[in-house]
Amino acid sequence: MANPLTCDVVVVGAGMTGAACALYAARSGLDVVVVDRGPVAGGTTGAGEGNLLVSDKEPGPELDLALLSNRLWGELAGEFGEFIEYEAKGGVVVATSPGGLTALERLAAAQRAAGVLAEPVDGDALYRLEPHLAPGLPGAVHYPQDAQVMPALAAARLLRASGARLLTGRTVTGVLRTPGGAVLGVRTDHGDIHAPALVNAAGTWGGEIAALAGATLPVLPRRGFVLVTEPLPRLVRHKVYAADYVADVASDSAALQTSPVVEGTAAGPVLIGASRERVGFDRSFSLPALRALAAHATRLFPFLADVHAIRSYLGFRPYLPDHLPAVGPDPRVPGLLHACGHEGAGIGLSTGTGHLIAQLLTARRPDLDLAPFRPDRFAEEVS
Predict the structure, then answer these.
(1) pLDDT at position 199, please?
(2) pTM for this one?
(3) Which among 20, 26, 227, 359 is least buried, having the fewest CB atoms inside 10 angstroms?
């Protein structure tokens, strides 16, 4: 067998979060190897819409991470903008009832106190922002910080910019550890990679990598579908979604939930989401989910009733029971750091996550308090 590769840190996962971890670790002076059993962006990243959102998060640790990530995405946009299809389109969250508008404005006020730009929009102003919305909606909140990238392009660009050695088509089969239990590297089906630090950025499969290292991380897949329309003129200007989407994101239900999320793209097609259900890794087509998406979207934008949907795709969001990702060192396994479990927010939160992981890898004080993201916070629940 060939001599094992050696490096400072091995990142497992070549999706958006792994790419961000590689970029910021390399820019901190570390020698990085990224390994993935599939291609770049072959998992959840390649099945995402590329949302960079602050609008859908209540004040707390996740919003803090989103605001840090939003700032970092802005920096990367200046560096790579056209190469990652960064679009600062802004978000419009629509209330469908007077009571819903009151609740939405209450959330927006709390978000503003946390540093979010959240601008209340009355009926007339709403239709200037989005002229094709259904008539009679009471109001909305405009979030100018919401943006979008093309996730597969972004992951590939950040990996290339990192200069990390990229090993795709290699399955991690074990974690090498010292007699004392500390990380020594990983074993793959193509040989060993030696490193004193391992970053678990395996997304929905993060629980499997944790288990190989002797730790428990209860990551579950949460399936979601997206409908794609035929190419259209730019009739939807922002990312537009109904206020009940925020509640669906925070729900613990395993049952199918759908709430309208509609956005135009630079290429012309309109993307329609969002569905959520816990069905394991079942990749089968779900007509009920797609019918519900279409029905919700046409209620928000009636013109869509006459538009053809040309395809759909699905992905699995890496879900943790409290809806917060696992970010930071695992005290059970010295040298193991987790960067997974971001659910549907992984693209948006990847930059902040990678930045924080790089700070930890280089013994710097992280910009955020990572206690809420501790990977071992579930140990008692699952033991």
Answers:
(1) 99
(2) 0.94
(3) 359
